[in-house]
Amino acid sequence: MAVPNAASDAAFTGARVRADRLSLKGPHGWVYRDVSLTAVPGSLTVVEGAAGSGRTSLLLTLAGRMKPTGGTLAVDGKTARRPIQRLAALGLLTEVNPFDEGLSVREHLNERLAYRRRRDLARTAFSHAGLDLSDLPEGDRTLARRLTRDQAVRLGIALALLDEPHLLVVDDADQGLPELPRRRLWRTLHELAGEGLTVVATCTDARDAAWAADTVVTLGVSEEER
């Protein structure tokens, strides 16, 4: 179990997440069903599941962006969606909040900072996300379409951290990444949790994340089988 740093040293204040038999049923059947998990502040929870198992929908539910049809969810004791939304931030979810491929990294950043007073958050956010702008082809002028998958995921994390969230959700953490970048990304998420943030990330295969995760939840497996 990850142990967050002392309150005076922690970079983030994590949320406690408790889902009990959370379910979502759509017009074509169950999207996900009877998912239970508890994530404490400063922990990394990995949700593993095949394509079509409801991974993305579960993340959106945990972050207050989608309403479940069954079960209960509390994030720091909040059960209504709007208060949960204020606590949770979304990393890159390709089908939900894709980057504008014609905009640069700087333009995406400025867009997110437009209504924030603390513009100094950007440097810290990029550092925590493990994204060095000097490694990009044209620095912060690099267009989103020129980013590698690893860089895009890390940019999504950095932009999410600008919201100063208590809960960060990251989708498809292992998608399109070779083994080494995949392991490095899990290390970054593990380190964010170590700084006090509550992190929930999805993947298709959790074997590379086992060392980093405090909890692994496999979708499509009943609670009794876990």
From TrEMBL:
Can you tell which superkingdom this protein's organism belongs to? Bacteria
Q: Where is the ABC transporter domain?
A: 17-226
PROSITE patterns, alphabetized: ABC_TRANSPORTER_2
Q: Which Gene3D superfamilies match?
A: P-loop containing nucleotide triphosphate hydrolases
Q: Which SMART domains match?
A: AAA
Asked if the keyword ATP-binding belongs to this entry, the reply reads: yes
Per the record's keyword annotation, is Protein biosynthesis included, yes or no?
A: no
UniProt keywords (A-Z) are: ATP-binding, Nucleotide-binding, Transport
User: Sorted alphabetically, which Pfam families does this protein's record hold?
Assistant: ABC_tran
Q: Which family does it belong to?
A: Belongs to the ABC transporter superfamily.
Protein name per the record: ABC transporter domain-containing protein
From which organism does this entry originate?
A: Planotetraspora thailandica
